[in-house]
Structure formats: structure tokens, C-alpha cells
Amino acid sequence: MRKIRVLAAKPGLDGHDRGIKVIAAALRDAGMEVIYTGLRQSPEQIVSAALQEDVDVVGLSVLSGAHDYLFPKIMELMRQKGLDDVLVIGGGIIPEEDVPAMKAVGVSAIFGPGANTGDIVKFIQENVKRRLN
């Protein structure tokens, strides 16, 4: 069985990536393969990378407050490219009142500052669509 493949992405103009690097390391330590796109990625670049890398999970981190635009745009592009079976999770600075809207567009979970990395690993393991052969 192949490893769970995760694309870790920083959409938008955020200049801080310490948090996503901590998460990426935790996912690697849990046996997942992690591809990190780097800073300042457009929704189109993220979806293209998810398609090219044949990932099982896309993890998005936004600190800028632009999640209300970026997450729906990424979800729309993923549907257009047939990536409906890819688990999408989000994190960063996302106000609690915005979480229902993020889930409504298809983001499965939001993990805020201080989230336990073990909880994120467990969530991915329990919710990734099993297309791992």
C-alpha cells in the first residue's frame, strides 16, 4: 500500500510558513509523503500541483484573512479538474464564524493555531478516500 500523499500549500500573499512546515514535518513523521508548494501560490498553481502530484490530501494554510476568497476558489478549480475525491483541510487564522462557510464549499476540517498535530494526522488517516493501492 502506498503512502498517503499530501500537498501542503500557502495560497495568497502570506509571508509566514512556520506553521505549515511544522504540520508537514508531523505528517512526514506519521509516514505520509508531503509535497510543500512554498509561499505565495495562486489557486491555479495549487490545483495544478495537486493534479500533477496525484495527491490524496490538500492542506491549505492562510494567515492573511483571504481564506473567504481563496478556499472557495481552490475548491471550485478542484471540482473542475475532477479532484472531488481529494480531502481538503485548512488551517491558519480563520475566525470561528467563517468555519461553516469553509465547510460548505467542501473544506473538510479547519485546524487553527495550537491544533494538535496528532489530531491532524488522525483526521487525515480516518477521512482520506482510500484509493491507495
TrEMBL record:
Its cofactor is adenosylcob(III)alamin. GO terms for molecular function: cobalamin binding; isomerase activity; metal ion binding. The keyword Chloroplast does not apply. Keywords: Cobalamin, Cobalt, Isomerase, Metal-binding. Gene3D superfamilies: Cobalamin-binding domain (3.40.50.280). Residues 3-133 form the B12-binding domain. NCBIfam families: acid_CoA_mut_C. This is Cobalamin B12-binding domain protein. It comes from Desulfarculus baarsii (strain ATCC 33931 / DSM 2075 / LMG 7858 / VKM B-1802 / 2st14). The lineage of its organism: Bacteria, Pseudomonadati, Thermodesulfobacteriota, Desulfarculia, Desulfarculales.
